[in-house]
Design goal:
Structural class: alpha+beta
Mean pLDDT: 90
Strand order of the largest sheet: 3-2-1-5-4
Oligomer: single chain
Order of helices and strands: HEEEHHHEEH
Distance between the termini: 26 Å
Helix content: 40-55%
Number of helices: 5
Strand content: 15-25%
Low-confidence stretches: none
Radius of gyration: 20 Å
Largest sheet: 5 strands, antiparallel
Length: 186
């Protein structure tokens, strides 16, 4: 169980997700890294967010303003709480405690992906009707997972190491539950 908690700590060290925008005018592409508590460009280059916001303006997408995204503020606290709960469950050393931790982590992870989808949908569909570039019936929602052409951009959206660590943490919690013998009452 402690291993699951340590693995969960990886979400603070690595991005959870990356959206990459490739186009001829940006030979290296624009990488947007989404962390548990911030959004940054590749290698911490925050000017990429400014460049993406300039592009968003032309097609009517909202600006990406990390300070206005509440999840970036409170997801860290949820992760810390789950780490503390995991340590508590390891101290208690109870099979069902491990199972409860695993279920909570699995549910929170599914809800986080759904929340991310809702943000992508909002950004891609709620466009400014006064945008300089309008294409009737077109939305600009990046894919949740995968690759997609959006106008002259090729967009890729994939999980990163932080998500892998979170997934391994969930697997570790399940493994702790599965391998812990049930206490026999005497």
């Amino acid at each position: 169980m402690i291993l699951a908690v340590v693995l969960l700590g990886g979400i603070f060290l690595f991005p959870l997700w990356q959206i990459n925008l490739e186009a001829a005018q940006f030979p290296g592409g624009l990488d947007l890294n989404i962390w548990i508590n911030r959004i940054s460009g590749a290698d911490g280059d925050d000017s990429i967010i400014q460049n993406i916001n300039i592009l968003n303006h032309y097609i009517g997408m909202q600006f990406i303003e990390p300070d206005s995204i509440p999840e970036l503020k409170y997801f860290s606290y949820v992760a810390y709480a789950m780490m503390a709960l995991g340590v508590l469950m390891a101290i208690i050393n109870n099979k069902w405690g491990y199972g409860i931790w695993f279920l909570i982590m699995a549910i929170l992870s599914v809800l986080a992906v759904y929340d991310f989808y809702l943000w992508l949908y909002d950004y891609g569909h709620n466009l400014d009707p006064m945008a300089p570039i309008k294409i009737e019936g077109m939305t600009f929602m990046p894919p949740l997972f995968g690759e997609k052409d959006l106008l002259n951009f090729y967009v890729k959206s994939y999980p990163q190491l932080g998500t892998i660590f979170m997934g391994l943490s969930i697997v570790g919690g399940f493994f702790a539950f599965w391998t812990k013998p049930k206490k026999v009452r005497s």
